[in-house]
Design brief:
The protein is α/β, with parallel strands linked by helices. It folds into three domains: 143 residues, Alpha-Beta Complex (Protein-Tyrosine Phosphatase, Chain A), CATH 3.90.190; 180 residues, FAD/NAD(P)-binding domain (3-Layer(bba) Sandwich); 137 residues, 3-Layer(bba) Sandwich (FAD/NAD(P)-binding domain), CATH 3.50.50. The protein contains 16 helices and 26 strands. The strands form seven sheets. Strands 6, 7, 10, 11, 12, 13 and 24 form a seven-stranded mixed sheet that branches. Strand 1 and strand 2 form a beta hairpin.
Length: 555
């Protein structure tokens, strides 16, 4: 038996089947059959009892949900959704032609998948659901809570649930829908605004309008996904569920975990209260990146401190980018000789990829920066304009020291969100425990990780997400289909180091610092063309390509 049409990863529909076909149906991988045809509709129609006996003999679960042609009721839709929720998939549903079964599927999915996607999916399978459009629209507007079933709502179980509406979550959702539009996908994201964070460094350097880094979340959600505007309080992977901040639960078949990371402002004493005044600033927060530029413009003499906390952090080059752009402005304004610039790095090297250290050191010398390695910011007193650091020597001895400042740019310590750290999905360091090559979780095979919360050891950059999204999409679909995974992520990350206004060193690398350049040019040389790429091209690539599933230069 091969005359069936697949509407989703878990469901195919067909016209009337005969008892003798059920063994073949089982051989093709189906586990459940749903009969949507009332007995006695046609002379050549086998009875439901005959089909049930043949299904059981073939090892198939069998359900009879008879629906009168042209009279699909809400109770029928709820019944179908309930069967899909409890049945072991893949499921084959049938009626006389398959049209009733496809209508039941579309109506049961319509509170979480937009009508255009449902109608188009059915049309590709040869079923015309245009007569159901008004009803589909009504259910879509009503949303997931429209018709809950006792005990469990089928509208809260998704083929793919994406946690996080940042770069990773939206790129993965777009890539999945590009490959399989019939998927029911929900994205859980509490924020109203989506930010293009890579440009905040430029905002802090006076080279980018902060308003251009923010867009309404609704405008960047991939078409065809359902946006659940809520916050995830906990992951429960043992039950294929997440817990929301209102206590509700959402179920999934596959999970894409992309919650991002959190800035641990309280990891530095006094930082939270000090930000935004007396020269204390950070490009890592949207509201303070413009203040960085104000501080840079206003400073004519004194001491400017720039800090980098222990790894891992989002975009490890960003602390230096803030320093370079600030120094370049002071140089152009002939102020640099009057400003004592110091860089406090909690690590022992300037940059994690050795190839780029020599050219970056040249810029440090050009800007006469005092380098302090193994020096971690401990506390800030904005009112007194003082900062305290803990320095660690080669023998592990620690010593605290105080420094006064006129400007302090802080890169806050960073960590995975609490919902990750406290879950079974976390590794020993608190990050998502994902395989570095396939991005699938090491213990839960229906969970994939993408973006900053992943513990795969790559650089946490938007460029990494651009390469990760197609790998997640390909491997998730393979897992859903019971096939081997073919996608491999090589740890790619990119750091456009803005060493001066108008020039960038484009550092592209993968696991273990292996260079992965996209262009046949010396990667250690600062170029004006890369500044154009960073300031003009990359925002468009991000919004118009990556978030829409258009995979450019992903390999």
């Amino acid at each position: 038996m091969s005359d069936y049409k697949r509407l989703s990863p878990n469901l195919a529909v067909a016209g009337q089947i005969q008892p003798g076909q059920l063994e073949d149906i089982a051989r093709q991988g189906f586990h459940t059959v749903i009969n949507n045809r009332p007995d006695g509709e046609g002379d050549d129609q086998p009875t439901s009892d005959a089909l049930k006996q043949a299904a059981r003999a073939a090892g198939l679960a069998y359900y009879h949900l008879p629906v009168t042609p042209g009279d699909i009721r809400d109770t029928d839709v709820m019944g179908f959704a309930g069967l899909m929720q409890q049945a072991r998939g893949p499921v084959l549903a049938f009626c006389r032609t398959g049209n009733r079964s496809s209508s039941l599927w579309a109506l049961s999915e319509s509170t979480r998948t937009d009508p255009e996607t449902l109608i188009a999916t059915a049309d590709q399978a040869g079923y015309d659901l245009s007569k159901q459009e008004a009803r589909l629209q009504q259910r879509w507007r009503a949303g997931p809570g429209a018709q809950p079933q006792p005990g469990h709502s089928a509208a809260t179980t998704w083929d793919v649930l994406v946690v996080g509406g940042g770069a990773g979550g939206l790129a993965a959702a777009a890539s999945l829908l590009k490959r399989r539009p019939s998927l029911s996908i929900a994205v859980i994201e509490p924020a109203d605004t989506h930010y293009y964070q890579p440009a905040w460094t430029l905002v802090g350097g006076g080279a980018f309008d902060p308003a251009d880094t923010a867009r309404p979340m609704a405008s960047v959600m991939p078409r065809g996904v359902k946006w659940i505007q809520s916050r995830v309080e906990a992951f429960v992977p043992e039950q294929n569920q997440v817990v929301l901040d209102d206590g509700g639960r959402v179920s999934y078949r596959m999970l894409v975990a992309a919650p991002g990371l959190e800035l641990h402002l309280d990891g530095v004493e006094g930082l939270r209260d000090g930000l935004g005044r007396n020269g204390v600033t950070s490009n890592y927060l949207f509201e303070y990146a413009p203040y960085t530029w104000q501080c840079v413009r206003d400073l004519r003499q004194g001491r400017a401190l720039f800090t980098q906390p222990p790894m891992p952090i989002k975009c490890a080059g960003a602390p230096q980018k803030a320093l370079y752009l600030s120094c370049d402005h002071w140089r152009r304004q002939h102020r640099l000789s009057n400003i004592d610039v110091r860089f406090h790095n909690a690590g022992g090297v300037l940059f994690g990829v050795e190839t780029f250290v020599p050219p970056l050191m040249e810029y440090m010398r050009r800007y006469q920066v005092g380098l302090n390695f193994n020096s971690t910011l401990k506390a800030v007193d904005a009112g007194a304009r003082k900062a305290w650091f803990v320095d660690t020597d080669a023998d592990g001895n620690r010593q605290e020291r105080e420094e006064a400042f006129d400007m302090l740019h802080v890169t806050p310590p960073q960590r995975a969100p609490r919902c990750v750290r406290d879950s079974a999905l976390a590794n020993d360091a608190g990050w998502l425990d994902a395989d570095p090559d396939t991005l699938r979780h090491n213990r839960f095979e229906n969970v994939f990780a993408i973006g900053d919360a992943s513990g795969t050891g790559n650089a946490k950059t938007a460029a990494a997400v651009r390469k990760q999204a197609p790998v997640v999409a390909v491997n998730l679909l393979a897992t859903l289909d019971g096939k081997p995974m073919s996608g491999r992520y090589q740890g790619y990350g990119a750091c456009p180091l803005t060493v001066e206004k108008g020039k960038v060193i484009l550092a592209e690398f993968g696991y273990q610092g292996a260079l992965q350049p996209s262009f046949p040019l010396d990667p250690t040389k600062a170029r004006s063309s890369y500044w154009w790429l960073k300031s003009k091209a990359m925002p468009r690539i991000y919004f118009d390509l990556m978030l829409k599933g258009r995979e450019w230069l992903t390999g």
